[in-house]
Write a structure and sequence with these properties.
- This protein is of the alpha/beta class and about 325 residues long.
- Helix content is about 35%, strand content about 20%.
- The protein has an 8-stranded mixed sheet with strand order 5-2-1-6-7-8-11-12, with helices on both faces.
- The protein is globular and about 50 Å long.
- The termini are far apart.
Length: about 325
């Protein structure tokens, strides 16, 4: 039986850990900064309402207890935590232990290739395998939505097909092997999707402005946000055209959401069942609500996801005026 170590206890950490443990096809351990807050029995509620129960083999903050035994180490972490986590686990990795990330768009491959041995198998997903929400920290979470197909890049190993097949088996989802890590490291998902909405909501915000309500992020999505998203997506694809990325390996935002223009894209985003009930990242203050700059929408999507796209565009002399404008705003307003 394969031994899998999950690193990170956020929404995805809960659901991925619980999903793997419940299906009992591998032995699952958890590396987290807060082991005392976790119980070994984890409950995951599926979109169908089924309760998945799994047992976590070991829960610890000490990498020496779980990393040397692991066949697979999977990071479920925000971009700003990846480098630190790789530094922590690096001394204890075995030569054939595969290291991967459920999110590749915040720099995982760039960091891992710099920090880990060239013989360490690496893998990363183009989009997260699940839409996940923690219900009760360390005890229960909700799997809000599956992906019909997963797209994964695998580097630094000749046994790519074996690892792809294992990932497919563990996650119970058809998994497609991509040509190279660019095809998963660059995405028009969160790094473009979230900033387009944030910018159109709060581009005029400044200290002292308090909003009376906390809007729903997707159900109240606007056509203005869709227009900006489409414009950013065009610039993103201008970058892809000069990189070793196969045509069609990354769908345009309109293709992915089965839309034809800003109006149909708006209707689509407003109607997705798994997105319902998700509030905009705000915090309550006297008199109402203000943007929450500690949210991962700000701490991850701007300084990691969108900035990686801009850096590559500048390196390859691709003009991205809309992305530049939105990124500059996001970094300035959140003081990143």
């Amino acid at each position: 039986m394969k031994k899998v170590c999950i690193c990170g206890g956020g929404n995805l950490g809960h659901v991925v850990t619980g999903f793997l443990a419940a299906h009992k096809e591998c032995e699952v351990s958890l590396l987290t900064r807060h082991p005392e807050r976790w119980q070994h029995q984890l409950e995951i509620t599926s979109p169908e309402g089924t309760l998945l129960r799994g047992t976590i083999h070991q829960i610890t903050a000490n990498p020496t207890e779980v990393i040397p035994q692991a066949d697979i180490v999977m990071l479920c972490l925000p971009g700003f935590s990846i480098r630190e986590e790789l530094q922590q686990i690096r001394p204890f990795l075995q030569p054939k232990t595969a290291v991967g990330s459920v999110v590749s768009s915040t720099g995982f491959f760039f960091e891992a290739m710099e920090m880990l041995p060239a013989t360490t198998p690496l893998f990363g997903f183009q989009r997260v395998p699940f839409i996940a929400r923690t219900t009760e920290y360390g005890r229960a979470a909700t799997l809000m939505g599956y992906k019909p197909t997963l797209h994964v890049a695998i580097e630094q190993t000749k046994e790519k097909e074996a690892l792809r097949s294992l990932i497919e088996q563990l996650l119970h989802t058809p998994t497609v092997l991509m040509q190279n890590y660019y095809e998963v490291s660059l995405t028009n998902s969160n790094p473009i999707l979230h900033p387009s909405r944030l910018y159109t909501m709060w581009k005029d915000w400044h200290e002292g402005i308090v909003y009376p309500t906390q809007p729903l992020f997707y159900e109240e999505w606007t056509e203005e946000a869709s227009q900006l998203l489409i414009a950013m997506d065009r610039e993103f694809f201008a970058l892809l055209s000069v990189l070793p990325v196969r045509e069609g390996s990354i769908p345009t935002i309109l293709d992915y959401y089965e839309s034809t223009d800003a109006a149909s894209l708006t209707r689509k985003l407003q109607s997705i069942e798994a997105f319902k009930g998700i509030l905009s990242p705000m915090k309550q203050v006297e008199g109402g609500f203000v943007p929450d700059f500690s949210s991962r929408y700000f701490t991850e999507d701007f300084p990691y996801g969108l900035r990686i796209i801009q850096n590559l565009a500048r390196k390859h002399q691709v003009n991205t005026p809309t992305i530049d404008q939105v990124l500059a705003w996001g970094l300035k307003i959140s003081k990143k």
